[in-house]
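Human: If only I could read backbone structure tokens as easily as an amino acid sequence. Take your time, and here it is.
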Amino acid sequence: MRVPFIKMHGLGNDFVVLDARTDAIPPISNALAAALADRNTGIGCDQLILLEPSSTADLRMRIFNHDGGEVQACGNATRAVGKLLGKSGTVETLGGLLQVDPASSGIAVDMGEPRFEWDQIPLAYPMDTHHMPVAWDMLDNPTAVNVGNPHVIFFVADNQAIELDRLGPEIEHDALFPERINVNVATVQNRQRIALRVWERGAGETRACGTGACATAIGAMRRGLVDRAVTIALAGGDLLIEWTEAGRIRMTGPATESFRGTFESADFGG
């Protein structure tokens, strides 16, 4: 069975999108998702995105990381799905219902309200998530925010000097985080701009992470380091993050379709 796919990216965070809203496709197992995401033997991507019908929204989006594990949310993927939708609408995810709208600079996504309680991150035991009394080498005093995905954020003088390829997986798999964690290292450049690197659980360091940008912006705003609207500068480009007076997060940035193709599901164990 040949299965159509769409290759897309948001600031270099790339996706293979499978659309099962109208046409049946083979069941997507963790193993099949990982095989398709493999950059040497598969199509190659950071995340596999599966679109399905929804009874509560315009469509349902399921997200599988590079290692095949399913996660709750992905901001960049939501913008890509918003581009495919081609109009204002709602997207059902494991992390909640998201609103997408066309914008002059791409696609705007209402990411909902941030969560800060220790058991909402979640952590393994109670702890102040605003200033966490923990450290890994030179990374200390982080803040934790759940924006559909769990994130821990470290504010540092120079995020390029951090050995994220070493510390990222160590923190991701620490017993403090029972569902693992996304690791952000951020440098506040001024009150309107933050430079960010993100180690995504199950994917490694990526060129952009929408939920990481949201979590980092909220963490910096809570600490009074930036204004309520801030540009997050990632390797792949910039995202605008706003924390509205209503308490909701609005993320705006580009999404791009790269190409379309098909694959034989049996070649990947489907």
Q: What stands out?
A: The helical segments are 30-37, 75-85, 164-172, 210-222. The longest helix spans residues 210-222. The chain has a mean pLDDT of 95.
